Fold these 4 entries.
Entry 1:
Amino acid sequence: MRVVGLGPGDPSWLLPEAAEALDWATDLVGYGPYLDMVPSRLASGAVRHGSDNRVEIQRARHALEMAAAGRRVAVISSGDPGVFAMASAVLEAQFDTEALPAWTQVRVRIVPGVSAAFAAASRVGAPLGHDFCVISLSDNLKPWSVIERRVRAALEADLVLALYNPVSRHRPHQLGVALDLVRSLRPPSTPVVMARDVGRPGEAVTVTSVGEMDAGICDMRTVILVGSTTTRVHEGAAGPVVITPRSYP
Amino acid sequence: MRVVGLGPGDPSWLLPEAAEALDWATDLVGYGPYLDMVPSRLASGAVRHGSDNRVEIQRARHALEMAAAGRRVAVISSGDPGVFAMASAVLEAQFDTEALPAWTQVRVRIVPGVSAAFAAASRVGAPLGHDFCVISLSDNLKPWSVIERRVRAALEADLVLALYNPVSRHRPHQLGVALDLVRSLRPPSTPVVMARDVGRPGEAVTVTSVGEMDAGICDMRTVILVGSTTTRVHEGAAGPVVITPRSYP
């Protein structure tokens, strides 16, 4: 069985190993819109098992069940399956107390991909060029106090922050709290990048600052990069260029 | 001009956009051993400008000079150029006080790749499945006190750590100090992954623990992943499987 990262969605950012895994599979399992991102030239004969967004564990069990029965299953993830995506869900399901003994014998190969923060970074320069931290703001599965503690620690240690899952219908207010924390611990001039759907139709990347940033333009498909005190912006030939230099004063 | 990530080295982990950029280039600029990693079917007609490891800024200036003169230049990076690699160096050189005005007009496109931590993670399961921090232990360009503060902050906030550049001839002792900090702030049973040359000949991945880890097996080509208090190891069909679950108690 393979857990396959599609990257952001653009086929030019799909690893050859991922393309090979899609072609190998008899069954594709994933969130419907991600299955739709699989290039049609790949996996043309495979059965597609689409499912809803919030059912990762059921999806993982279904995939393990089919793999244990001898099917060649590819579980589809956007970005890198190892970063806030399907790799954890599949492996948790494989080894949890409700797992069937046959499931633990399934060989699961993780095929990496380009996660959203790195796709976003590449569009604006090198904001992640130095030490950074990657934090999901979703409190579906962890207490908000843990998130706040981590954001605060990263800010106090002057790390660049990459924030995933900033906002959703079920939690409209948490992003505001996190950004208030950013405002209280970073100078207003600190560069901020808000990137939505990078590598997909409708890509929108905004370079702004801690003083000017607007939570209103973010949704669950946005990734937010907050600079450190050394991150700076230059005016390049094709727009703003964000750099976190390699050296630290 | 393009700054191109080769990923770890295996062609199955080279993005199509990177392959296209290599074919487009008239000139390849990079650290010698990375130029050697460019698949021979690509960039066959390009001039290769190899240089030594510690001369990133000179290399970047040379690349900008050629690009400003109309050459199609690809600067080669291993991994993701945006993560402790050539993107920062090129963009710093482009906008620093010694840059020629023509250089700032060069359009620099960053082509992402798979950075070492994510390649390593994919080999052992999903150790980076939840909030994590990426820190370089190199004190060539930043004070050791900053590194120590960041490692401590990440440990105290219970983030998974990915440590790059753990050791070199010039700084044999810093890794020991960092690992002592890990030992003092994480339980001995916490999983640790030490991965060298993932995706290259001689790949070696060791799954160990804070109590058992041995700095002696690390060199500058090793990346170290230190689990959080929720990271755990299961015995899978093909060896140990490391998981940082999506939920936090």
Entry 2:
Amino acid sequence: MVIHTYQIRLHDTDAAGVIYFASILRIAHEVFERFMGDSGLELGQLLDTVPYLLPIVHAEADFIAPIKLGLRLHVQFSIKKVGVSSFTTRYEFMAPTGQRVATAELVHAAIDRPSGLKTTLPEPLVQALKPHLEV
Amino acid sequence: MVIHTYQIRLHDTDAAGVIYFASILRIAHEVFERFMGDSGLELGQLLDTVPYLLPIVHAEADFIAPIKLGLRLHVQFSIKKVGVSSFTTRYEFMAPTGQRVATAELVHAAIDRPSGLKTTLPEPLVQALKPHLEV
Amino acid sequence: MVIHTYQIRLHDTDAAGVIYFASILRIAHEVFERFMGDSGLELGQLLDTVPYLLPIVHAEADFIAPIKLGLRLHVQFSIKKVGVSSFTTRYEFMAPTGQRVATAELVHAAIDRPSGLKTTLPEPLVQALKPHLEV
Amino acid sequence: MVIHTYQIRLHDTDAAGVIYFASILRIAHEVFERFMGDSGLELGQLLDTVPYLLPIVHAEADFIAPIKLGLRLHVQFSIKKVGVSSFTTRYEFMAPTGQRVATAELVHAAIDRPSGLKTTLPEPLVQALKPHLEV
């Protein structure tokens, strides 16, 4: 598990006064990007240098309590599953009080760029993901 | 079932060359807003006039095929479930070829604004939703 | 001049209850994309087929009156200037009452993709823009 | 002058492979929100507690060089002008090489919430802004 922080910005909110729901999934992906960068696998570099993509094939989120402008979220990031050609990341969003306010899961597949077909997860990625597998 | 159309805009895409995954959930919600407007329940008016909110408590999406800039989506909107205090909307995104490229579901709960607690779905909303229930 | 319409969606707004300022520039660009499509110059096709890009080198917007969720904007699109290697588009956002609520301008430059340098505006683009030049 | 950092995320980019232009204005506003928080004027708290709003009445940005996914921007934040009822913030975006890749300016007005009319800038805000005035 890795913990990141994120403070809710005006852009994340909507006229109902709280977070716009899809923003939580964008924030989850930002946490994933930070994790990848910390693992030596910056997405920007991957796009330029490797023959695979890691598109999201499934995304979901649950909303438990209102998330207001300025709230400082603690995001617990973990890996739920590492499969042959896909992996599942999990995000728990906690308020400073410790209350869980939302959760999210993203499933990424490894796609071979030339063919557009599923491919096995590259070994450096598997090595980066495995230490964070939930037990 | 109601069918809406949406053409993928530059803002919806990312540097991987296709739709940014969370955009599909935003597009789903735009279709919901159009449905509500067509049903005489404009979200902007509701925010100003009714004592309830309809926040999303669960959202999910599946991605089946790449969705590129400029693609004209046909979005089939239907109601999957109408419960006591929540309802589930479903979205099927089709390419002009008829291929299904993505699906999404959003679960909205009715929340009493003064108390912040769940409340029963307002009758005008139930009347708007029921004709579009999947069978 | 071409007139497009756009209804403000929840995603466009923020917790202050009105449009998030940068959304007006995104909406302007969506109007530009519609104009280009109507002119036979779909951005998605251009990206795949032509050796130039049309990045924005300057953007600005003025906000005159609050823009609320659900407001149906009429967007007057015109061309302010066609230069050698750049052009300026202009957007006037009107409420249904006729009140002007915001304006925006976007300056696009033509960039040769192989070299990354400025290039002359392609002739088909000039032909599409000129009929909409302000007088 | 205050320097903040921001790394370009996938969500900030578009299918042309670089930053979506309006993202630079959103990033500018995030830097403003951080500045306000550091000054004891969190936007989320202001929305709940003060009788004024600080909407943007003018926004502009210039783009000097391509901004790619993963780029770590240094953002130099300064105050260009403090007027009676409005103020202008300025943002210079630098690559790690020191190259200036974009600039932005945002003009905020102080609006009295009950009346919706312009009002004088609150004194605590003036005190927070003045030390960062450009000379």
Entry 3:
Amino acid sequence: MAEPIDFYFDFSSPYAFFAHLRIDGIAARHGRDCRWHPILLGVLFRNTGMGPLTQQPLRGDYARRDWDRLARRAGIAAFRIPEPFPLNSLQPSRAFYWLNDQDPALAKAFTARIFSAYFERGRDVSQAETVADEAKALGIDHQALLAALADPHWKERLRQETEQAMARGVFGSPFVLADGEPFWGNDRLADVDQWLEGGGW
Amino acid sequence: MAEPIDFYFDFSSPYAFFAHLRIDGIAARHGRDCRWHPILLGVLFRNTGMGPLTQQPLRGDYARRDWDRLARRAGIAAFRIPEPFPLNSLQPSRAFYWLNDQDPALAKAFTARIFSAYFERGRDVSQAETVADEAKALGIDHQALLAALADPHWKERLRQETEQAMARGVFGSPFVLADGEPFWGNDRLADVDQWLEGGGW
């Protein structure tokens, strides 16, 4: 099998919510695995001077309209932009890496639950207790997860992952690297598909 | 025939260069005409706090790489980012509206020539003489065009068109409005296509 592709996202990013539903299918269609990497978009923003879309005039209104129509097109009836938005994604991101070292498939299932909890059920997934609740449905031990979230090792791990993403040129969410080729944005997933199909353009 | 769709662009925008090649075909596939509107992106940027992509860290490098691969995919071998970049698009934009009032099809042919002159032949199309040169190949009278470029009427017209675009929520280039629905970016042309196909999502 060829090299895996890499999918970077922030749990607070609506475009990443849409992208996480499709990226593994695109990779699999071309015989690729996909590694997932939650990162802290706020840290990446420091490198570009960008900020949250919804805080920008005109672009914020456009983004909200765009998210709603993407949800309609995908048939995701419960989608809504929750409050608070954006939120601090430290806790689910740390939990992800703790799970990912045990079982990457479980870490992806956890990601899907957190995204759904936030964007379809309006839960505040910035809170450790909420993260542990959602994980519990997947059979993940509540106390072990809370202990991991309090462990400096996983705080440091997330910091390192975000640093490594920046070092690889990642500056937004979602962001895909396929054989070193960068693709920024949910609206470029079709390009990722075509790129993998053709082995570059 | 249903209402025309509207295509907004700045002559200095590489993504608009790619989009102008495809937008009329997309509209026609759904029985629509397409009205073209050059605008001054620098004026629109004042509303959003955005600036030229190439002047932004990381995003600038990404954009240059993205333009090159889009050109490769489309088989546009001569594409390159010219110097100066971005350029002042006042003159070709004024010329466009002068032509458009006479013959919209001619104004589109003129647009294609200006885009090609800038992005495939590296000509500085900010200059009135260069604009008139390129127009001449289409049988457009050289002196009449230069006279129009010096006429306050067409300066005012471009100002008004840019104001109207802003009033309709346009904030980037390219930008499409289809029955009031906004689509920002060359990478959303497939969405415009799908939107027109389905009559909304």
Entry 4:
Amino acid sequence: MQRIAVDMDEVMADTLGELLARYRREQKTSITKDDMQGKWLWQVLPPKGQELIDSYLLSDGFFEEIPVIEGCQEVLLRMSRRYQIFIATAAMAFPSSFHSKYRWLRRHFDFLSPQNFVFCGDKSILHADYLIDDMPRNLASFQGEGILFTAPHNVNTTGYRRVSSWQDVDAMFLG
Amino acid sequence: MQRIAVDMDEVMADTLGELLARYRREQKTSITKDDMQGKWLWQVLPPKGQELIDSYLLSDGFFEEIPVIEGCQEVLLRMSRRYQIFIATAAMAFPSSFHSKYRWLRRHFDFLSPQNFVFCGDKSILHADYLIDDMPRNLASFQGEGILFTAPHNVNTTGYRRVSSWQDVDAMFLG
């Protein structure tokens, strides 16, 4: 059975959407993902803004409130019958997020075994056939085939097969 | 550069020693590791005892107090100059331990990058040349070469190269 590792932020969890929603509420601005095409968050926010974003990421329970990206639950459930699914999330930059991320996964993906959760940093440690991730640097060091999940910051990245929604993932792996 | 994944409990951290020390203090008994050769903890404790052990494992900050196994710091430091060292610990059974384990690693192994920490369940996900671990089932599913680190429960296990101390690890990888 082939094994697929799936990243969490921006692939399963709309972390950027939640960060921007908080930022808009607190700063009375109108910034959306549309303002970020081809850019990282730090390139479109003032320095003070980046500090605020970091404070959200560090705040207790932030990760538990993040919405699931549309279609992810249904497609992953069906994929889990045909593939070994591992969830591989970069958690080491925000150690206070470990437990929140674990609870989020248990709540929204109760059909996945926690034995298949991996909280890591450098994703070159993953032994899997595929990695679905929005971060080009994670795909670059991964040993299997990296599949790029579209996020504002990576719209200009080339060199990987790309999916822009869970419908695309469905078509690629179950179609 | 070859990559070595290193388990935490019973390899870097004397978790069993700390559990038994607490148990002796609370229960006024004299059980030691010598009473456990070839056995798991649940085989030598009464059912109530196993419940107590679980309560220690679940208690806040338990993992932060565990002593480092002798020689581990010095040998890993020297190994980190010749190999890529990743720390791979089974943390999913005790999600409340994540942050404690992270802090323990940072305090005692500040020369290792958190990018090389992996909190996981099933260790077959690790992409490494070697895994040093006390659990035969982790070595069985690992894709590289598994090196068995001696612990009371595994003294009768065969089929792997065995190390019984960090001096042995030193001799195997740096000798």
